[in-house]
Amino acid sequence: MTDFLTSIGYNHWILPVLLVLPLVGAAVVLLLAHARPDARDGEAADSEWSRSGAIRWATLIVFLLEFVLSVGLWWSYDPASPNWQAAVDWSWVPAWGARFTVGVDGISLFMVLLTTFIMPLAVLGGWTSIRDRLGAYYALLLVLTTGMLGVFVSLDLLLFYVMWEVMLIPMYFIIGMWGGERRLYASIKFFVYTMLGSLLMLVAILYLWNAAGGTSFAYTHVLHAASATGGAAALWLFGAFALAFAIKVPMFPLHTWLPDAHVEAPTAGSVILAGIMLKMGTYGFLRFAMPFFPGAALHPAIRTLMIVLAVIGIIYGALVAMVQPDFKKLVAYSSVSHLGFVMLGIFALTLQSVQGALMVMINHGISTGALFLLIGMIYERRHTRALDAYGGLARVMPMFAAFLTLVSLSSIGLPSTNGFIGEFLVLIGSFRTRPIAAALATTGVIFAAAYLLWAIQRILYQPLARPENRALRDLNARETTLLVALAVMIIWIGVAPGPILRRMEGSANRFVQLVQRGTPTGPMQASTEAR
Amino acid sequence: MLQHALAGTGAHPLAGTAARFLWLLPLLPLAGFVINGLISLLSAYRRGPADPSHPSDAAHGAAHGHEGIESDAHPEAHDTPSAHPAAWLVSLIGPLAVGLAFVLAVVIFVAMRSAGADALHTPFVQRYGSWMPVGDLQVDWAFQLDQLSMLMVLVITGVGTLIHIFSVGYMKEDPGYPRYFAYLNLFVVFMLLLVLGANYPVLFIGWEGVGLCSYLLIGFWFEDKANADAGKKAFIVNRIGDFGFLIAMFLLFANLGTLDFTGVAARAGALVPGGAVVTAICLFLFLGCTGKSAQIPLYIWLPDAMAGPTPVSALIHAATMVTAGVYLVARSSFLFAMAPVASLTVAVVGAVTAIFAASIGLKQWDIKKVLAYSTVSQLGYMFIGVGVGAYVAGMFHLVTHAFFKALLFLGSGSVIYAMHAAYHHTHRHDDAQDMRNMGGLRRYLPVTWILMWIATLAIAGIPPFAGFFSKDEILGSAFARAQGSTLADAHWLGLSGSTVLYGVYALGLAGALITAIYMTRMMLYTFHGPNRTGEAERSHLREAPWSMTGPLVALGILSIMGGWLNVPELLHRVVPIGPTTALERWLEPVVGGATASIAGAAEGAGATHTEAMLILVAIAVAVAGIVIAIVALSPARLRPKAESPESHGFGRVLEHKYYVDEAYDAAVIQPVVQGSRFVLWRFIDAGIIDGLFVNGSAVAARIGARIGSWVQSGQVGTYAWAIVVGVLAVLGAFTLR
């Protein structure tokens, strides 16, 4: 496989192609949507149908193509090499020294694969639920994908910032136009929150660019310059980055945009938000905020604050999730809890905890994405997300019940599913440097069982009392197919995460070492963290 | 790493024998799970419409849906006799998958025997691949075969096979038949992983996996809210225990840098004996045990777990899963031997649980609830055993208990089956599990009656039945360790270890008296005296088919003979049949070291006449209990459930299980749920966090309204175009220049 990939020069074109292909797709979709129907009036309805079909299929084909192309990275990626891989470095805005520089390491590799894996599923999940303005909807999804992939592969800070914004705006429209009843409120909240953070980040990026001589936005160049800043400047800059990313994570108490955005977004929007976009924040900490300013990140007060907020997020998110009457909101709060594990792992800064954090990022994308897809499926049938509106569905929808149970178990972190791997590694790693925080975070596994089992009891079990539920039909072939894909990932990662962990290890290790430069001098702490 | 080296040398006496097929043990029931699971899912599956939200499709679906539902719309689906169409295939695959595993287990056992007991001082470790490799944390998919895991595998697959066969008859009429066997097979898979895993994380897969199957099977008849609640309760309470297990693993890794059994055993010397670390590790492990093995304070889920089908209660909630905690302590015996305070805690919790649960058993009317509290109580005895460092005695009681308690549960299943069938014939809806509705059943179920008396005598501790030997050995060890052992020299909450151990012995003895009383009470009320089922129903009471009584007979034989597994030398002098202390010699390579280090000078110091005295006391107590029950209780005065008066005084407290569930609800569950709802969500989340931003949000909303009205006017296509063009311009123009 590797030989074949080398022979076609895979590494030289894959990342630009992955970024451009969705844009081409978006153009095609918009052309399809705006093409003048050549049929006469009598066939109008028919051609309308085929037009929406063509739009959907075009989008799906682009996403499937993206996925197939991106899978080559799994083999072409060389875990032993410390360099950026599949890297491309083109001139872009020479006047400012900004370049089109992209590349992957063991961290972004899996974020790219996660994105290309989730996107076709998100499209399939919303296959029949989106009915109006299809062209715009699918074009936005495609543009959004370029933005998300761009965020993960950019090695130039200006390019990163552009991609960050490219990602935000389509999601704002997806929530605001195709969302639920309170979509306007939710989309504005989403927009204001994230814009606030990203503007601060822009200021910080420009400051760093200036500090680095105003000649280059290149990642390594800025990294050196940033590491050189010390004292109050470093704290402020770290604060700006950290705030932008913490909103995106979201960390307690900056999380309240998330439940609203999740609940109001259409199925595909929720899946993408939870599955991919929530990782932007933690990715930002891993790639920028912490390696740039290790001194600030490891400043005892800041580090403790972040760990405390992470642990609060884990427990608070789970407890609030437990009492939600709305299934989507429940899953939204559970995301706050899961992302708390990621933040704990990152700031605990051991190899196990960081790799665990990366695993949680992947697993949360798969499991929570799957949960939102499942909610979308019953929502399409019953047009309600209230847990109390269901009950006894295991009787009429056994296939749905089986998948919901499996996905919930993975989210609960049952060993032999993917969810366990991430949480276990985060906790066992964090316990080495922060035993109390890790022990408190471990109580999260109890609450997770409580909120999800209670939820699935109210949906799947208990009497099948409502007549409208008795009429429900089980999953169709499309729904079953996409859930099988997710179920395979859940079991595969749970049983054999080794190949993934080995591909991450080098980059995770580099991250730990980069950040450990900021260790406050003190023999005790240095020795415990070096393990 | 260490394991790899061990396995790689190939010098192990079991290399090349049947033991190399160890991996097949869990794989056989796994295949059963997959096939039965697919049968269950595919036969119930009716494909949904291509467009679920489309009105015409939905109507179409609705019409079909109603049609499909009508046939089994009976509110109690499990009462409707409608055998699954693929039942014959399931009946074949389910028991066969476990039966073959049992055959393989026996073959491996024979291989171990022929390899010679002396040769097997190290476990046979097989490494199949890496599971979680992260830096210095290396967790492998690895199995470990030693005398302890072999014993457990034989019990699991042996008793498991009998219960699978019993289930064929018991569950045949249930529409969820394939699902039932899928879960039951899956349970065996996880249970085997639990006992075969060569490191704590693999053990933990099995540990949580059996909990999952328990959850699924307790809530098997999920349409009843009580059943679903019981399943959920079991899972969550077990998770509290699992929290302890996880912390113990973190402590082990942080201090020893490994989680393999062989690795931990090799490096345990680095821990300070009796120090805080090893004590904490053992106490957290034991917290896990109190969850899985239903000890105080986490025992509350087990009685509720009786909501599951009765064979499940026999297999999971009596014979195997709930004993996993005892296995865990025995597996970690080298750690517990270093932590006398933790060991004493285990023994004390075991003793208190033993008498506490037994006392509740005195006033239960539901036949399965009596057995449930009895199980909690008997598990307490096993923990006394492993707590006082008598690991062999604890495991011995685990094995004999698996025999007689499985027999009692299956026997009760046989009774319930008969009661159910009788009520079904006359279309009466009454409690088929309440003993007040039984009475005099010995005339209708003679085989079950005799077999259950055998099991009752075994659990009460009457020689020569199995339970006598194991319980006597536990109590004898507790008494012996009170002098001269490391435990006796330790201090526990300010008390000397010696005092604590005498207390444990006294509690255990008192518990044995109560055990004999409540078991005899159960037998008297169920099988003796006049029948209270009802005139019409009485004629329909009859013994279950042989597919069900067959396994009962097998377990009856085991309940009689099981004690011969480990006959103490003293008794062997009285009745010289078979080998002496066979189990002790078998388990010696695994737990011998830990036992010796705890017992120290106490080992063998006990004079023969003391030992004889203890045995006589134990027998006297058991006989006294049975006599008290026969004298004090008169089944003739009992009224059917519907006519029974409320009990008063302490009896009422016992009947309500000391109100522990109510106390937990008021002290833990309600504060957490209501606190989360009103304080965390409504007040902090919606009130403070969102409230603080209210002004900002209001402004934003006003701006938003303006943007929104523009958005909604249909100009979005233009806007999206603008984004696309903008992005293309920025990215493209410069790039392509």
CA radius of gyration of chain B is: 29 Å
Envelope shape of chain A:
globular
Largest sheet report of chain B: 2 strands, antiparallel
Mean pLDDT metric of chain B: 86
In terms of DSSP E residues, the strand content of chain B is: under 5%
Question: SSE order of chain A in H/E notation?
Answer: HHHEEHHHHHHHHHHHHHHHHHHHHH
What structural class results from the helix and strand content of chain A? mainly alpha
- Please give the number of β-strands of chain B: 4
Helix content of chain B: over 70%
Terminus-to-terminus distance of chain A: 36 Å
Spatial separation of the terminal alpha carbons of chain B: 56 Å
Number of helices in the DSSP assignment of chain B: 29
- Give the strand order, joined by hyphens, for the main sheet of chain B: 1-2
Give Rg of chain A in angstroms: 23 Å
In quaternary terms, these chains amount to heterodimer
Dominant shape of chain B = globular
> What share of residues of chain A is helical?
over 70%
Q: How do the strands of the widest beta sheet of chain A line up side by side? A: 1-2
Give the rounded overall mean pLDDT of chain A. 90
Largest sheet, strands/sense/barrel of chain A: 2 strands, antiparallel
Strand-residue proportion of chain A: under 5%
Quick overview:
With 531 residues, chain A is mainly alpha-helical. Chain A has 24 helices and two strands.
SSE blueprint and pairings:
The complex is a heterodimer of chains A (531) and B (737).
Chain A: H1 2-7, H2 10-34, H3 44-76, E1 85-93, E2 98-104, H4 106-125, H5 134-153, H6 157-178, H7 183-211, H8 219-228, H9 231-248, H10 257-264, H11 267-292, H12 294-297, H13 300-322, H14 327-348, H15 351-382, H16 393-396, H17 398-412, H18 418-433, H19 435-442, H20 444-460, H21 467-470, H22 477-495, H23 498-516, H24 523-529
Antiparallel strand pairs in A: 1-2
Helix pairs in contact in A: 2-3, 2-5, 3-4, 3-5, 4-5, 4-11, 4-15, 5-6, 6-7, 7-9, 7-10, 9-11, 10-11, 10-14, 11-14, 11-15, 13-14, 13-19, 13-20, 14-15, 14-18, 14-20, 15-17, 15-18, 15-22, 15-23, 17-20, 17-22, 18-19, 18-22
Chain B: H1 2-9, H2 24-44, H3 55-70, H4 87-115, E1 124-134, E2 137-145, H5 147-171, H6 177-196, H7 200-218, H8 225-256, H9 261-267, H10 276-292, H11 301-304, H12 310-319, H13 324-331, H14 333-336, H15 340-361, H16 367-387, H17 391-426, H18 446-460, H19 466-480, H20 486-489, E3 491-492, E4 495-496, H21 497-527, H22 535-538, H23 546-561, H24 569-574, H25 582-599, H26 608-632, H27 649-655, H28 660-692, H29 694-736
Antiparallel strand pairs in B: 1-2, 3-4
